[in-house]
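One-letter codes give the sequence; the fold follows as tokens. Both lines appear below.
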Amino acid sequence: MGKTKVRKMLFILSKATIENVYAAFIMANGARMEGIESEIFFTFFGLEAIQKKKLEHLRVATVGNPAMHIPTMLGGLPGIEALATKMMKKEMEKLDMPPVGEFLEILSDSGCRLWACKLAVDMFHLKKDDLIDEVEDIITIGDFYARADQENTHLLFI
């Protein structure tokens, strides 16, 4: 088997829970640190991670999340989601993880390209002004797939 180097990582982020957002951001940032091009396409509820009014209010998913190791019914009780979110943010602070807005700036500054999904933007009646300045453009999924049309490019759906 020949040695093939990954040249580009494309991430599709469809959910703006803290665990999904940080997974995408950490992997995209890791790619950049390894000299690999990286891009993130924010679609459907993933758009909340790049909306100026919502990005600092993301939460941990407690209902139906098997990694929480709590019954779904318990995860839906008032205050459980807020408690889990507070605990997760506290642990992330211990590891010096930047808040979502700052992480997006770091990604953009490192060369990671950020895209918003046109269909989802239209569906949620958003405008470019609703999104952070680091979002390069609002594009179709076809436009995004065209960005993958080169050797050694990988797509990851989160």
Notes: The CA atoms of residues 122 and 131 lie 13 Å apart. The two ends are 29 Å apart (CA to CA). The longest strand covers residues 8-13.
